[in-house]
Write a structure and sequence with these properties.
Elements: E1 7-14, H1 24-46, H2 51-63, E2 84-90, E3 96-102, H3 108-118, E4 123-125, H4 126-135, H5 149-159, H6 167-171, E5 176-181, E6 187-193, E7 214-216, E8 221-227, H7 229-234, H8 237-248, H9 252-266, E9 271-277, E10 282-286, E11 290-297, E12 303-307
Parallel strand pairs: 3-4
Antiparallel strand pairs: 1-5, 1-11, 2-3, 2-6, 5-6, 7-8, 8-9, 9-10, 11-12
Helix pairs in contact: 1-2, 2-3, 8-9
Length: about 300
């Protein structure tokens, strides 16, 4: 009997708390959160479900976990608001959907998927995206739903002018994403974030930008990125990795490592990506101190990591 081939990788953001500042209790909570989201997505694949459903399930689970910077637990803008972004893409047809600047949607990744499947568009923003959500009967929540004390304290440190902050530690920890291959050979990717602590002027990062923070193409790979969004946009990181495979003949590991470890540092960009290719190979690479990440392939055990073990 032929072994079914499928796999899933997830991330909860690069630029983790420095190892020296991470208590054993904190680490256990993060590991449990990653394991729970991985199990949710993997169960879809194990039951014969699609890669699109698997990444959706994993990211929704992460959005609902206040430890991560997506959905509940999203970071605050400088004026004390929450603005959320998300995107999703499937590799068979390269259909994609994305939303940015959301303020009242409980699970942004679900609205991004609705844009892909139920509209003629790819990216909807702010009030227009939420107007679209209203026509579909989406669940709206008050801004207070996203609040956590830890995120509010981060904003207060930014407002106080604390110059000792690491941009990644304070701003990006928790952006979430998932990539999957199902047993039909189809790839999918999804990413969701609250953005950058203290952001202004409706700033949008790479997470909702197809080709920057998210990309899926059955001819190469599926990618979800996390890190310094402005650099990831400029480098078109997610698309570049796939292009190196398609046009340059690189394997997944080589393409990922070249972009994350060479291209990004040369542009002063910190972060990482998770990736899976059509053969089911998984790569999780980063150039920061750590990246919350987990993966599991058919017939294998779950892996959960934070730092370079």
């Amino acid at each position: 009997m032929t072994q079914r081939k499928y796999g899933l990788a997830i991330h909860g953001g690069a630029g983790t708390l420095p190892r020296a500042d991470m208590s054993d209790a904190q680490e256990l909570r993060y590991r449990d959160g990653l394991a729970h989201a991985l199990a949710a997505g993997y169960a879809v694949l194990e039951a014969g479900g699609t890669s699109l459903d698997a990444v959706t399930s994993a990211v929704v689970t992460l959005e609902d976990n206040p430890l991560f910077n997506a959905g509940q637990g999203a970071v605050f803008t400088l004026d004390g608001q929450n603005q959320l972004d998300a995107s999703i893409m499937e590799g068979a047809t390269r259909k994609a959907g994305a939303v940015c600047g959301l303020t009242h949607i409980k699970n942004p990744v679900l609205l991004a998927r609705a844009v892909m499947e139920r509209s003629d568009y790819v990216l909807l923003a702010g009030a227009g995206a939420e107007e679209f959500a209203t026509t579909l009967g989406f669940e709206f929540v008050p801004q207070s739903y996203f609040y956590t004390e830890a995120r509010w304290r981060q904003l207060e440190r930014i407002r106080s002018g604390d110059t000792g902050l690491s941009a990644l530690t304070i701003a990006h920890v928790g952006t979430v994403g998932a990539v999957a291959l199902d047993d039909r050979g189809n790839l999918a990717a999804a990413t969701s974030t609250g953005g950058m602590t203290g952001k202004r002027f409706n700033r949008i990062g790479d997470s909702p930008i197809i080709g920057a923070g998210t990309y899926a193409d059955n001819r190469s790979c599926a990618i979800s990125a996390t890190g310094h969004g402005e650099v990831f946009i400029r480098a078109a990181v997610a698309h570049d990795i796939g292009a190196r495979m398609r046009y340059g003949g690189q394997d997944l590991a080589g393409a990922v490592r070249e972009v994350v470890l060479d291209v990004l540092p040369a542009m002063h960009g910190e972060g990482g990506v998770i990736a899976i290719d059509a053969a089911g190979d998984i790569v999780m690479e980063f150039n920061a101190e750590g990246m919350f990440r987990a993966c599991r392939s058919a017939g294998g055990a779950a892996e959960v990591h934070i730092y370079r073990d």
